[in-house]
């Protein structure tokens, strides 16, 4: 169990930093097409913000923002989005993960459709990586019990 | 005795691997097989075929899409494995 630090410096710094970390994560994810970045990196940064939340405040705080059940669904949802994007091209008798076939669904030409297909699978990667990192962290620090910290909720 | 045999096998395999590194192409050699036909094709055709300015992304997500899909599955599997190992009903 993570001990509650009760340190005003750490808490204030984290409260200021966490939104910027999350925005930066989305920046890394969205700009994966034009610069270094993408789903894996963006997902890790997003997970880092939740881990910082759990370390600087307490587990309840992180758990309130991202419920354990929601997180477990996110783990599977990312892989589902990725594989589902691949299966979408089956509808138009394309090959698996042939994003060019998405041009039937999106108002673009087949070449630009590959661009959007990649954005979709990167979104899946981002969601899965974020959820799995947070899940592994919470499992390891609580030895799988996900117990509440003794103090009452809401006094952050 | 077992440990000695294991050490011997480890040293032999390790030595073999180190020996084989001598036959690698030189670092950054433009004549190495990987740079001869695969890389130039990706670098030249990425923008025309996918409209993605970053060749790394197009290789990762499009040309090698299966690879990345199963990388994601591996991460998912790792998360599930940690859940199965640690979240025991007490």
SSE layout:
The complex is a heterodimer of chains A (156) and B (90).
Chain A: H1 8-30, H2 39-56, H3 59-65, H4 68-88, H5 110-141
Chain B: H1 2-20, H2 33-36, H3 38-50, H4 55-63, H5 65-86
Task: Give the CA-based shape of chain B.
Answer: flat
Number of discrete helical segments of chain B: 5
Rg of chain A, nearest Å: 19 Å
Radius of gyration of chain B: 21 Å
Task: Please give the domain count of chain B.
Answer: 2
Structural class of the helices, strands and pairings of chain B? mainly alpha
The helix count of chain A comes to 5
Regarding quaternary structure, how should these chains be classified?
heterodimer
* Termini Cα gap of chain B: 41 Å
Number of domains of chain A: 1
Q: What percentage of residues of chain A falls in helices of 4 or more residues? A: 55-70%
Mean pLDDT of chain B: 88
- Compressed to H and E, one letter per element, the order of chain A equals HHHHH
Strand portion of chain B = under 5%
Looking at the structure, what is the overall shape of chain A? elongated
* Number of strand segments of chain B: 0
* Low-pLDDT sequence parts of chain A: 152-156
Q: Give the proportion of residues in helices of chain B.
A: over 70%
Largest sheet of chain A: none
Order of helices and strands of chain B: HHHHH
Distance between the termini of chain A: 17 Å
């Amino acid at each position: 169990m993570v001990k509650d630090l009760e340190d005003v410096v750490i808490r204030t710094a984290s409260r200021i930093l966490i939104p910027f970390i999350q925005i930066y994560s989305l920046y890394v994810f969205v700009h994966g097409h034009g610069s270094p970045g993408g789903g894996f990196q963006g997902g890790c940064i997003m997970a880092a913000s939740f881990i910082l939340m759990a370390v600087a405040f307490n587990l309840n705080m992180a758990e309130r923002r991202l419920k354990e059940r929601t997180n477990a669904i996110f783990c599977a949802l990312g892989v589902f989005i990725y594989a589902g994007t691949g299966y979408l091209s089956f509808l138009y008798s394309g090959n698996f993960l042939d994003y060019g076939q998405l041009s039937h669904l999106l108002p673009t030409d087949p070449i630009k459709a590959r661009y959007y297909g990649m954005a979709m699978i990167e979104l899946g990667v981002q969601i899965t990586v974020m959820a799995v990192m947070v899940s592994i962290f919470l499992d390891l620090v609580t030895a799988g019990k996900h117990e509440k910290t003794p103090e009452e909720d809401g006094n952050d | 005795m077992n440990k000695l045999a294991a050490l011997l096998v480890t040293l032999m395999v390790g030595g073999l691997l180190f020996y084989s590194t001598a036959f690698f192409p030189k670092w950054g050699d433009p004549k190495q097989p990987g740079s001869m036909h695969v890389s130039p094709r990706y670098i030249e055709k990425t923008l025309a075929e996918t409209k993605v300015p970053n060749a790394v992304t197009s290789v990762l997500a499009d040309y090698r899409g299966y690879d990345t899909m199963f990388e994601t599955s591996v991460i998912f599997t790792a998360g599930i494995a940690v859940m199965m190992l640690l979240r025991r009903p007490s």
